[in-house]
Amino acid sequence: MSMTIANSTGLSLGQAQAAAEALSRVLPTGAPLSPLLAQGSEVHGADRAVVATFVGAPSADLAVVLLEAPQLVDDGADGSPVVSLQDVLQPALEAASDTLGAGVLDDARTEDAAELFADPATTVFALSGPAGVAGWFAIRGRASVAERAGASALGGKLGRISNVEMALTVEIGRTRMAVRDVLAMEPGAVIELDRSAGSPADVLLNGRLIAHGEIVVVDQDYAVRITKILDAAADLD
Fold it and tell me: Would 190 be classed as within a structural domain?
């Protein structure tokens, strides 16, 4: 079985995708937009992004860039917008953050988000519409102070063996069988496992359970998307 594991800072690809889809449904762009995975280097106008920070479990930085500002209100007497762009996009950012669970999203603000879009830990989506790319959405998990301290300590302990290869196994279930039943198996036989369809798979490193995940298909190969990392740091103290 070929394994593909996505690494991110506190957010899975599934969580990022759900946030992007929720944001796309609420964006006031007139035509519906679809989020497609993209590279941060493709983004134009990141210096004028609308940014907000979500604090929860997990916490995250979110940013939106639109190539054309929504035409929702007329300009005021002095030529400035009656409603600011960050106020217009706040509901969309709230919809995205709602997919992350309980927490608080601060007020959206317009600022330079080039560093956020360029960060390898950031997941970037192109917001595609009938006329092509209409903008971009970026989301990056934020580790807490305690998590960063724990990761630093753990990294120091593992640094000396970081190049050692270990066997990673994905287990979708188990069963116990008598020897006579094993010897009686033929092609087409069905073996019932101890888990129902849709239950998470176990990810084991050298036989030790380290994570749970779901089986997916990537380029016609089986892969596992990590949904939960178990606390393995205690075993290294």
Answer: yes
Count how many Cα atoms sit within 13 Å of the Cα of residue 198 in the half-sphere of its side chain: 0
In terms of domains, do 131 and 196 share one? no
Task: Give residue 231's pLDDT.
Answer: 65
49-56 and 59-66 beta bridge pairing:
antiparallel
Q: Find residue 221's DSSP bridge partners.
A: 218
Does residue 217 have a pLDDT over 70?
yes
Q: What share of the chain is helix, strand, coil (3-state, %, to 5)?
A: 25, 30, 40
Mean pLDDT of 59-79: 72
Q: Decide: 134 and 127 in contact? Cβ < 8 Å.
A: yes
Judged by phi (left if over 0) then psi (alpha if -120 to 50, else beta), residue 196 lies in: beta
- 27 lies in a domain? yes
Q: How many independent structural domains does the chain possess?
A: 2
Q: Which amino acid is at 90?
A: Q
Residues 24 and 105 grouped into a single domain: yes
User: Which residue range forms the structural domain that includes residue 81?
Assistant: 13-143
More confident residue, 44 or 17: 17
